[in-house]
Each structure stands twice: as C-alpha cells, then as structure tokens.
Design the sequence.
C-alpha cells in the first residue's frame, strides 16, 4: 500500500528531473528571500542560475546548526510572517531554540509526507491511531496527527506521559496503531506486563517509532512485547519534523522521501562525500519547503545509504538506522539535549561550581537523566534544606529550558573538578539499546 504511488514508486530518471526542477526553484526563492543565503552565494561568486545538474549541489554552501542559532528566531525564513501559519521549535546547540515555520502549503505537504510514513508502516483509514508524542513545540505530535487525519484514520491525540491512561486508552478505545518513541513503546510493554495486561487480547497491530536512536534488539523486544510490527521513522524539525524518512513493513531501512528532500552522506571532517554505502554525516536539502527551506543542512546524524531495491516497490533510497551523532547532542525521551544548554543553565545559578556531569540510564525501559553538579562551598553541602531547595531550583530551570526533566544531585566539592578542569566525562550514557 502506498499513499502517493506516483511519487513513491517513480523511476530514477523521472525522480531526478523532479528533484532538479524543485532544487532550482528553491534556489531561486532563497537567493531572493533569505539574506543569509544570498550573502553566501555572493561571497562564493555563485549564480544560482548556473545550477543545471543535481551534481552541482556540491558547489552550494552547507548550513550548520550554528548558522541557525545566529539567525534566531526568524532570520532563515523565506516568506513574510503573514504567510506563516505554524511555528515549532527544537533545541539549539546552546540556550536558544531553533524556531521553524510553515506556510499553508508546507503544512499540507507535511501531512502528506507523514501520511506516506504511516501508510508505509501499515496504517490505513481503518486504524485507530494513538499518538503518544508530545503535542506542542515538538514536531512529533502535530506532525503525525495531521498525517493520520489525512489518511482518514481515527486519531487519538493522547500526547505523551500518563502511562496508566495510555494503557487504558489502548484497551478501551481499541487502538490498532501506536505512534511514539521506541523507548516509550518499550516502557509501555513493560508496564503492561507488570499490570498483567494480556497483550494477545489487545487490538494493537502496528507501531511506528522514531525521534531517538534504537536498535534491532529493541525492535524485537517491542514486537514481542506489544505484538505489533515495529517500524522506524526519522525526521528533524529543521527539515520538517517526522515524515522525512520511514520504513515500510519490510523493515529494512528508512525510505527517504526523495522527491522532497535531497540527501548526501559526507565525511564530517572533510565534508567530501563518502564512498557509496559508507557511514557519514547525513546532509539534507529541502526541495519544496516554502517558509523554512534548508540548503545542505548538516544534520549531525550518522548513517549510510543501504544498497539494493526494496521488495515493497518504493523506489526511494533507504537510509540505515541513525547510528550516532557527530556532536555531543543526545536524546532523552525523544527530546534533543546539548550539554552546552545544561552548562548555560547551570551558569545562571549561584552556589554551584561550573563542572557537571550528565548520567543517562534506562531502567525497565524508561530513560532517566541525572545531572551531577558540585556544591560551591563545603558548608553549603551540609545544609540539607538549602541543598534540597537548590536541587529543586536547578531541576525547574533545566526542565523549563530543555523541555525534559533531569534528576539533580549535588556532589561534594572537587569530586568532578580538580581545580584545572573537569575530571569526568560530561555525558555518561549507560543506556543499552
Ligand atoms: O525528533 C522529529 C521526529 C518526531 C521524528 C517523531 C520522528 C518521530 P527533533 O526534535 O528536531 O525532531 O529531533 C531530531 O532526533 O536529528 C536525530 O538525531 C533524532 N532522531 C529523530 N528520529 C530518529 C530515529 C524529531 N528514527 C533529531 N532514529 C534527529 C534515531 C532519530 N534518531
């Protein structure tokens, strides 16, 4: 089953023609409307009209997350605000988020691409789709919501959290498709097991999971635990949100929606393309985005193109699972976190030293993050009341900036910092996936 057979199963030749036309029109628009790109083109002596071949993409400048930070909030928008109908945001590399905008057409296309991913994962109009991604600035909830509605499925916008209620909804509303992070799916399976829920009696059939790294072992555990087909899907706010790439029921890699996004895999050091099939940094160019077009965005995600055709009939190339990051970003419960954001928050708080460590653990399928910080003085460490208040304050500030909660532990002076430098690794990820 395809949502958009004409495009999803296009011949390579026809696809490349569509890509080139869309790239040219994107370049024309951004060179007129986005000063950031116009200046770059001028500095490189590049006339966008000279891009006559997809291979010319390599002559175009990259966009980095720092570029987005410097253009906060609306500097990269290619349309006036009166044409923007939706805003979302995701973590930037420091305290500032990356704000992304959508025109009416962008929202419409986004729904179509999310519908493609849902269809590829087995969802039809007959499904009851429970979306347990956060609804808000995060793109996961709304992105899938509009896609599932467009398909004609019955959408349950349960949003994230409140696991007991999620389980009750699965049982009572007869959910057939579950959409959330793989970590949360695993946790749901565990909680259902603990509560003695008979999973075989549930109506669940399909699970579509994304937003964070996972593994084949986790796929097997979720498929067994929830009795669903578990497919991976990938996306990022800067490019659109979910709907960029998704697995079909063959579960052998993520079909990239190549008629809307051009992908390159480059060596993160040299920025040259890696050899076919090798792992490198995924670089994406949007071909149809109006409000927030991106040229050669360095995603920071490491992956590779998978060889061969897929038996499903889709001709779009497949990406392997995301295998890691080129930078120190990590995801906790699907939320992206940069250690520099934590550092920036801690720097605003008195009574602690700047050295910190983030410990990530997974217990019973549920991810937990703890921030260890050093007390500023010894006396302080002994005053329990003050100590608790400080922990609560750090927790509150971190949660409000990062959008995800961390436990906070204040540790004795000099346990992390030796007077010269931090003695410990900043992020200790003990989660096994
Ligand atoms: O996570 C969009 C999304 C929502 C995708 C729901 C899929 C499902 P951001 O918050 O901007 O957007 O985070 C994007 O998350 O660069 C990856 O590092 C990571 N990520 C997203 N999907 C996957 C995945 C959404 N399937 C960042 N596997 C990306 C591994 C993923 N990492």
Sequence:
């Amino acid at each position: 089953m395809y949502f958009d057979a004409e495009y999803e199963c296009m011949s390579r030749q026809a696809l490349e023609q569509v890509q080139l036309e869309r790239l040219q029109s994107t370049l024309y628009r951004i060179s007129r409307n986005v000063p950031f790109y116009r200046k770059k083109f001028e500095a490189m002596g590049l006339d966008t009209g000279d891009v006559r071949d997809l291979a010319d993409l390599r002559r175009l400048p990259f966009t980095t997350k720092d570029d987005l930070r410097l253009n906060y909030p609306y500097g990269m928008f290619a349309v006036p605000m009166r044409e923007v109908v939706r805003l979302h945001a995701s973590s930037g590399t420091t305290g500032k988020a990356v704000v992304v905008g959508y025109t009416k057409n962008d929202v419409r296309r986004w729904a179509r691409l999310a519908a493609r991913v849902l269809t590829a994962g087995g969802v039809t109009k007959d499904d009851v789709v429970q979306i347990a991604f956060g609804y808000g600035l995060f793109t996961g909830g709304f992105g899938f919501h509009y896609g599932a509605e467009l398909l004609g499925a019955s959408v349950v916008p349960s949003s994230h959290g409140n696991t007991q209620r999620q389980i009750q909804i699965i049982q009572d509303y007869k959910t057939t498709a579950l959409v959330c992070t793989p970590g949360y799916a695993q946790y749901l399976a565990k909680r259902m097991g603990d509560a003695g829920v008979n999973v075989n009696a549930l109506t669940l059939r399909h699970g579509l999971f994304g937003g964070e790294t996972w593994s084949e072992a986790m796929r097997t555990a979720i498929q067994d635990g929830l009795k669903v087909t578990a497919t991976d899907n990938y996306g990022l706010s800067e490019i659109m949100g979910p709907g960029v790439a998704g697995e079909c029921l063959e579960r052998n890699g993520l079909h990239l929606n190549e008629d809307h996004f051009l992908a390159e895999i480059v060596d993160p050091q040299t920025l040259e393309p890696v050899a076919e099939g090798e792992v490198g940094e995924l670089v994406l160019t949007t071909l149809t985005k109006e409000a927030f077009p991106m040229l050669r965005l360095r995603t920071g995600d490491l992956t590779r193109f998978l060889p061969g055709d897929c038996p499903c009939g889709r001709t779009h190339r497949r990406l392997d699972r995301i295998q890691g990051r080129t930078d120190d970003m990590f995801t906790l419960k699907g939320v992206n976190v940069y250690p520099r954001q934590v550092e920036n928050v801690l720097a605003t708080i008195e009574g602690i030293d700047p050295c910190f460590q983030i410990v990530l653990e997974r217990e019973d399928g549920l991810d937990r993050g703890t921030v260890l910080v050093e007390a500023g003085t010894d006396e302080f460490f002994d005053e329990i009341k003050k100590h608790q208040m400080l922990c609560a304050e750090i927790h509150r500030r971190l949660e409000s900036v990062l959008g995800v909660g961390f436990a906070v532990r204040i540790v004795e002076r000099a346990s992390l910092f030796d007077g010269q430098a931090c003695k410990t690794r900043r992020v200790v990820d003990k989660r096994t996936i």
